[in-house]
Every structure is written in structure tokens, then in C-alpha cells.
Amino acid sequence: MKYWMSLLILICVLGVSITGEAQEVLRLRGVPFDAVKVTDAFWGLRIEINRVVSIPHCIKMCEETGLVDNFAKAAGLMKGDAKGIWFSDAQVYKTIEGISFSLALHYDADLDRFLDGLIDKIAAAQEADGYINSHKTIKLKSARGTAEDPRWSNLSSGLELYVCGHLYEAAAANYRATGKRKLLEVAIKNANLVARLFGVGERRDVGGHQEVEVGLVKLYQATGEDKYLKLVKFFIDERGRSHGRKLRGPFSQDHKPIVEQREAVGQAPRATYFYSGVTDVAAITGQKDYAIAMEKIWEDVVSKKMYITGGIGSLHENEGFGEAYELPNKTAYTETCAAVSFSMWNYRMFLLLGEARFIDVLELTVYNNFPAGVSLKGDTFFYANPLESDGIWKFNRGYVGEQPYMYKEGSATRKPWFYCPCCPPNAIRFVPQIAGYMYAQRGKTVYINFFIDSDSVITLQGHTVRLKQKTRYPWDGKVKITVEPEQPQRFAINVRIPGWARGRPVPSDLYRYLNESSEEVTLKVNDRSIALNMRKGFAHIERKWDKGDVIELDLPMQVRRVAAHEKVKDDRGKVALQRGPIVYCLEEVDNGKDVRKVCLTNKSKLTTQYRGELLGGVVVVKGSGTVRKEDERQAKEVEFTAVPYYSWNNREAGQMVVWLKWNTAQLGSIRRSSMRNL
Ligand SMILES: [Zn+2]
Q1: 147-181 pLDDT, tens per residue?
Q2: Whether 568 and 655 share a structural domain
Q3: For residue 677, what pLDDT is reported?
């Protein structure tokens, strides 16, 4: 009897957790990236380098590797075979998206003209019924084109729908930035074809690599056409349901319907592009079962499958998620594309549910994993972003070097372009949008997510409010926000108090701080301290705001020692260093050949120093530890210098380590006290 009762209770508990209600779907509205003028050193510099170096670099590489000519060849304007990987039109579309966003921030007539010419070629490559895929069109038009490889014949590795998704995103961005409709018309014509071919009563199939979902949402938002929303819902609901087709399995999140999924599986960019699309539709339609699935999967990622750098997708084998707590450091894959798509998803989750925990994770990614993917000069890239390197193992993906752009093996340094060049153009479209993550609003509440020196104008219920941030974040925790409503007005400002400033490096038990912070967060309005009225991770300040009111936030910037959950075997007996949102690493160039043997002890005093001349301006962490070589009986004391993880491999390739060895006796006592605290 007791057994049955416990079973019944267990079923009830599981039942609640599986079918339980999601939180209230709040549906916040984002503030567009071009409503913010970024003036800070960290992002201001990156936006400018993106404009003057990375964008011209991606254009050059798309041209020199033949990806632009592919459209001319498909249009019959040139002769020859298609060049590059078969889904490479997507790289050109992402480049267009990046250029368009950059134009919205900084108009450049030459780039605008370049885009016009490129879009003319793309439009010419589109077939009469709306089909566009240069590789396939070139092949089908040539004598070798046969019925064995017709259109939409291989959605799995052919990625035709994935390429369409990037076309739609580029078209929406280009229309928004320039007001020109030519690429939008190409996208509409193509989406109309896709809508005729796929759906209930038509072909019931989905793309192997998701992306069409977020693209269709952008097209829906740009045109207001319901049929695109209906189509994206079809692609979401059809995944994991076999209507006469063979399911593609967990790699493509195609093992069961999304509303039944509770764990993150498979290739990480596929997964997070997909979750972004599902979250978009949940926000637009208020569909609860989507929201429940998204929240559960997100919690699975953040509590079991995420690096301290905010990176996801730990395995090279599947470019994706491993088992729970499977987070190797040297072989961490954490693709730069996954940093982009994970960021997209986190921001959408925040808009859906209005909680700061999603921004906490987003912040980790955008200050650590993502910027590591791009060199400080802006013209070389990491595909994979490991947390440890022996300086020898070639973790970065195969690349194409100098002319004639033949494939070369991987490397242990950043490279200008890859055989599959998905990451560089993904980076150039992400950087200009960064300020789009800073603010959001709902009713009479403004949300401040990020602290970036900037000047913004937000429209709140028909009135404008100017918000000016003065800060040296992420190097300094002091943030001064001047509020200027066009007339005195009552509304609320929700200021995010980062999890790291409240004792939690991540919003889960995956990582924890070992040392307490001796300082508290302080918040002032017009020089008077106010209590933190916390709501979902935000300090809520509601009052009648006058022009020139000032909010001052002071976040304690102490170096924190981070330990991972016991189940992460690769981090056992180790600590990472974090200061504010920045995760640190030790590099061989600063610390010599024994850098990966450095052991931090309880005696290690950690100090910080701002070095304006180093790595674009960084705060370095200095400390002491011990090193014990295999042939030595006694450990010797060493001094070390740690630099922000994102900046590694910019001076020279070499060894690097994020997770340092930790005096295990010390860890034992800390572990016991932490257990008690739990
Ligand atoms: Zn990539």
C-alpha cells in the first residue's frame, strides 16, 4: 500500500513538473539597437572595428572564394561551377544582414551602393517561381543537373530551408535599415513558394538545420502577413512528428514534438535557432506549451550544459550538447555561431518572461564566449572556443587560407575564413545589434539590462524618455544613469542587478562562488540611497521622474573564485576567476610554459590593475600560486597574471587555461561549508 502511495505521489510530482503551468507570459517589447548611441570603449570599439575591418573582410572573402559569383552564375551572367560549400548563399545573406545593421548605425554610401549591386545579382539568380539557391540552380541548369538531385531533395544536409531563413533575416534587416524593398521582395516571393509547397495537406517535412523559423518570424514582422506565422508554426509543430518521413533524431531536435521536449540535445546552433523561433512564436501567440518547453529546456542548459564563459555545445563530434555535466575544457567546442544563437534565445526568453536570469546568461556569453570568437583586430576568427589549450592541438576548424583557397587542416589560432565559413558573418551581424539587448519596456516600465556607456531615446506610452549611461563597465561597477523624460512623468525603471553581484555566477547550481563578496550593491536616486526592491532580478524604482534625475548603481567588482558542480568531472579540484561579468584565463605569453600547472592556494592574494595599453584596454588580475613539476618534490611559489578569457590568443598562440588547479585541502573544507549553506 505504502509503495503504491509513494508511486502515486511520485507520478503527481512528475506530472506537475512535466505539465505544470509556465509563468505568466509577459511579452516585453525590445528597444531597437539603433535607438541607442553606444559610446563606451568595450562595445564602441567593437562596433567600429566590425564596420571598418570585419565587414570589409567578410565581403572580400565572400567575393574571393566565389560565393558572390555563385549568384551571377545561377543568373546566367557568368559561366562556371558553383564554388564553396553547398549552403554558402547563407554566408552572403548574413554578410548583407551585418552590413545593413551597420548602415543603420553609421551610414556609408559606398557600402549602400555595394549592397544594391549584390542584391541585383541575388534577385537575378531567383527563378521565376521564387526558388533561390545558387548551388542547386547552377547544377540543375548545367548538363549534369538531373532528377536525382532536384530542389528540396535533401533538406537534411542540403540545408535549403536553412538558407531561406538567412535570406529572410537579411531581407528584413536590409528593408529596415535602408527602406529598400528589392531583397524583401525576393524573400517574399521565396517564402510564398515555401508556403505553397510545405504545410498540412502539402509536403510534411522540416529543415535539417533550423533557421527558417526565426527568418519567417522576421518576415512576418516586416510584412504583417499571417501566412508566414502559420508557416513557422507548421515547421515548429511538424518537427518530431513523422508524417510518412523518417525522423532525423536528436541531432536536429527531431526526435519528438517540441512541446514534449525537456532537455537540450543535438547540434547547438540548430537547437538554439529553433528555440529562438519557438520562443518568438510563444511571445506572439501566447502559446503556453511552447513557453513551458522553452523554460524547461533553458533550465536544463543552464544547470547542466553551459560553460562558465556562457558557451554551449561542448562536443566536437556533434557540434553540440553532450550529456548532463559533460563539459570538457580542452576539447570544448562552444562554436562562435552557438554564442550568437544562444544569445538570440536568451534575449527572447527575457522578452517572453521578463526575468533577469536570462540576461545574466546573455551577459556571460556576450562578454566571454562571443568576443573570444573574433580577434581584437577583427579579421580572424575562432570557430571553436575551448577553455584550455596546450598550444598544439588544432581545435579550430579547417580553414581556407590564401588564394586559391584550398582547404587546410584545423589550427590552434584564429583564422580569416573557414571551409564552412558560418562563424565570421554570424559575428559581423551580431556586433552592431548589441545595444538592442540593453533595454526593453512593458506598459509603464523600462527595463535596463546592460550597462554600456551610451545615450538612448525610448518611447514610453507615447512620451519619449532619454536615458544616458555613464560607465566604464565591465572594468568598473559604477553606473550613472541620467533620466530625461520630455515632461515629468510617473513610471517605473527596472534596473538589473546582475546575478554575479548577488552571489550567483549563473542562475543555477552549476557554478558557485567560493569567496564571499565583502561589498554590497548600492543604488541611489538623486544622491539618496534606496533599498533594493527586487522583482525578478531587477531593482524596481517607481516614481515621478523629472528631467535630470540620476540613478547611481555601484556593483562590487571583486575577483571571485568560481567552482563548478561536483558532477562536472573536468572542473573537479579547480577554480576559475571572475570579476564582474568577465571570466579570466592564464596565458603562456604572460606566465611561461608551466601555465597549466599553476595551482591557486588559499594564500593567493588577488589584485587588479587596469592596463590601457594591453589587449585594447583590460583589467588584469595578478596573483600568486604554486607550481609543482613532475620531477620536483616541492611546489614552488609563482606570480601570475590573468587576462580576460575573450582576449586570449591575440598576442601569440600558446597554452591557456581557465580552470586553475586549486589547493585540494582547501577545496575540501570549502566544499563542506558550501554543502551546509545549500
Ligand atoms: Zn559557425
Answers
A1: 567 899 878 876 899 999 999 999 999 999 999 99
A2: yes
A3: 31
Answer yes or no: is pLDDT of 146 > 80: no
Q: Taking all residues of the chain, what is their mean pLDDT, rounded to a whole number?
A: 92
Q: Is 17 exposed, middle or buried (0-12, 13-18, 19+ CB in 10 A)?
A: exposed
Q: How far is the CA of 662 from the centre of ligand 1 (A)?
A: 34
- Is-cis flag, bond preceding 404, omega within 30? yes
Q: How far apart are CA 19 and CA 676, in angstroms?
A: 32
* Same-domain check for residues 545 and 608: no
> How far, in Å, is the centroid of ligand 1 from the Cα of 50?
17
Å from CA of 375 to ligand 1 middle: 15
Looking at the fold, whether 584 and 490 belong to one and the same domain comes out as no
| All residues with CB under 5 Å from ion ligand 1 | 335, 337, 422-423
In a domain, 586, yes or no: yes
Range of the domain at 643: 559-677
Together in a domain, 624 and 569: yes
The CA 427 to ligand 1 mean position distance, Å, reads: 9
Q: Are residues 600 and 633 in the same domain?
A: yes
Distance in angstroms (rounded) separating the CA atoms of residues 346 and 341:
9
- Total structural domains in the chain? 3
Distance 141 CA to ligand 1 centre (A): 30
Residue 488's CATH number: 2.60.420
How many angstroms does the Cα of residue 593 sit away from the middle of ligand 1?
31
Three-state DSSP state, 35: helix
Tell me, in angstroms, the distance from the centre of ligand 1 to residue 337's CA.
4
Ligand 1 mean position, distance from CA 16 (Å) = 38
531 located within any domain = yes
Tell me if 207 sits within 8 A of 232, measured CB to CB.
no
Separation of 530 CA from ligand 1 center, angstroms? 45
Same domain, 607 and 549: no
Q: For residue 664, is it within any domain?
A: yes
Measured in Å, residue 326 CA sits from the centre of ligand 1 at 21
Q: Within this chain, do residues 565 and 666 fall inside the same structural domain, yes or no?
A: yes
Q: In Å, how far are 193, 215, 216, 233 from 226, measured between CA atoms?
A: 15, 14, 10, 11
Task: Tell whether 289 is covered by a domain.
Answer: no
How far is the centre of ligand 1, averaged over its atoms, from the C-alpha of 484 (Å)?
Answer: 41
Q: Is there a single domain that holds both residue 627 and residue 540? A: no
- What separation in Å is there between the alpha carbon of 423 and the centre of ligand 1? 4
Structure confidence by residue, pLDDT tens digits, 559-581: 999 999 999 999 999 999 999 99
* Cα 133 to middle of ligand 1, angstroms: 20
